[in-house]
Amino acid sequence: MELLNRLHQQLQALDDKQLIRKRRTVDSPCGPRVTVDGRELLAFCSNDYLGLANHRKIKLALQEGAAIYGVGSGASHLISGHGRAHAMLEERLAQFVGDQLEAPRAISFCTGYMANLAVIAGLTAHDRDAEIFSEELNHASLIDGARLARVKTHVYPHADLPALETLLKASHAATKVVVTDSVFSMDGNLAPLPRLLALCEQYGAWLVVDDAHGFGTLGANGHGALEHFNLRSPYLVYMGTLGKAAGVGGAFVAAHETVIETLIQKARPYIFTTAAAPAMAHALLTSLDLLEGDEGATRRAHLQALVAQWNHGLRLQRWRRLPSATAIQPVIIGDNAETMRAGAALFEQGLWVGAIRPPTVAPGSARLRVTLSAGHTRQDVSTLITALNALERT
Known about the structure:
The longest helix is centred in the last third of the chain and has 20 residues, at 294-313. The mean pLDDT is 96. Helix 9 (225-228) links the parallel strand 7 and strand 8 (236-241). This protein has 2 domains: 19-48 and 294-392, Aspartate Aminotransferase, domain 1, CATH 3.90.1150.10; 56-292, Type I PLP-dependent aspartate aminotransferase-like (Major domain) (Aspartate Aminotransferase, domain 2, 3-Layer(aba) Sandwich), CATH 3.40.640. It is of the alpha/beta class and 394 residues long. Helices cover 44% and strands 17% of the residues.
């Protein structure tokens, strides 16, 4: 068939550029040590930043949730799928990040991707003159959210506040929405949220913050990037994911109660999707208790100690380490083929590190994306540092 031949040619073109992605099947729970195809590997590629994905208390809570609520929700939230566990989770999440928001309320989603589609499209619904101002390095879900909104979108250069201000000053839109990651998923650095919020307040714009990689890891209590920067404003719309530091799955948006009610009424990705399993919501209540308690604080402190060890121990000459104080520690190699060879060489040594290439990152900036976890030991990190320092010199 000509149609199949065309697809085959497209796949071959990706392969020629070292851009084919391949899945590996994991036979063990998520953790620092995983079993892949019969081999035990030391993994530095998951987003389980606090090592909670296989936590005994959360597993027991999931089992308890299934015993109470069953498995599936059966319908969307607006039909019959909004269970007591969902309601309790949303109330708890509103309390969790509520100190940074005015009249806080939260709404839960199956995934962070869906949450970002919903919040951007929901804020601009029925307003064809609305304008979106999107950070250059935003996650794909924010980019697609802007596309789904089908309103004028401006992309401002990474962390370029003067450029953003110029765009905001020139805008006559009644609805202006600035969207940004808090922690950039491929670089590991933080957005200048205090200055972004100041601009949004000055020019009357919403500030949508995707805190997928900050929720649970940043802030004294793990409340995320807003707590880290001590921000509070009615202009803030906050998205956090629950499958990374929280160790389970799903996502939520928290904002002023009027914003959340608007999403319930207007956000199509929320209205027309079956609700997540209520047992997961039940398990997340335990996860939030861990994040906010002494164990969460201990795990965050250990993670920061590992970040400091990494920054002190890695000594690169040809490759480049990006400055990052978060669990995401990229090593820029540049060439796609060399990046794949480096990832394969580490894999042969029993070290699993993600090899990231375009279009996830810009052409010429292929990298190893090292992610540290509170589940790692200092010896684990030392092993990877030694391997990378030696590999670069070969």
